[in-house]
Write the structure tokens for this entry.
Amino acid sequence: VHAALRQVLGPQALQSGSYNKPGYMRLDFSWSEALSQATKTEIEEVTNLAIRQDLSVSARFMSVAEAKDFGAVALFGETYDESVRVIQIGGPWSRELCGGTHVSRSSQVGLVSIIGEASVGSGSRRLEAFVGFEAFQALASERALVAALTESFKVPREQLIEKIQSTVEELKVASRRLAALSMEQLKARIPEFLAAAKQIGGSKLVVANIGEVDSADQVRDLAVALRDKLEPESGLAVVAGISGGKVVLIIATSKKAREAGISSGKLVKETSAILGGGGGGKDDIAQGGGPEIGKLSTALQSIEKLIVS
């Protein structure tokens, strides 16, 4: 796999660590960016071609200087004794300094199936793969998954990707339509929320606890719509919703309320603390919240005291 990496990516892709056990291998190498699927496929194909070619595997002991002249690749960051063991696969195809256990011919590996690639630090990537029988099992599982998907989507295998992509797009469109419908329903309740407004000091306070929402955007949009209805008087809109198991709180203030010293950012910060969270923003609109859903009523009630304090 190391030789395949260097063939595909270039000599700068050097192994910096590895872990091997029956059926599984992990290889860390110097590289600064994620590998594309096409690149991973090419590395896998180069590796398996070498396996199918039944290349001979041999070991030789020589000095470090001789190993370098021989073209053997040393592992990044390793220190070596004067005499080193060089593993050669298929002649010049792969020559590395290594003291590990090896097969006698490449075909004994059977198959390599890359299952993952990720960053393990700055300038370092990690490649993971199943090997041998486990690789065949992984491919069999993938084949079974593809068969199940073609059955579910009622399309032949070659049309599966296109069908999945079109289905995802349809779901996105449907989700946007549902969100828009939900927002329309919330805005239809604006007269209800305004009718329940309280006069606190010289400002009108509108509080809307709307329960579960699809996103924080719905909470924000309703707060802005309510605030706009309060203009040009002094007022503020407080809207709370539940999203992802947490309270989303938006407070929006009118121009006169801000001139009277009422700041959305300050109110959100103090109210969110009651909810076990945090938040902030500008004087005209701010967002916060927290995970303590059971304290939402207390948090909303505290706003009245904060306004007059």
In short: The chain has a mean pLDDT of 93. The first strand starts at residue 15 and ends at 21.
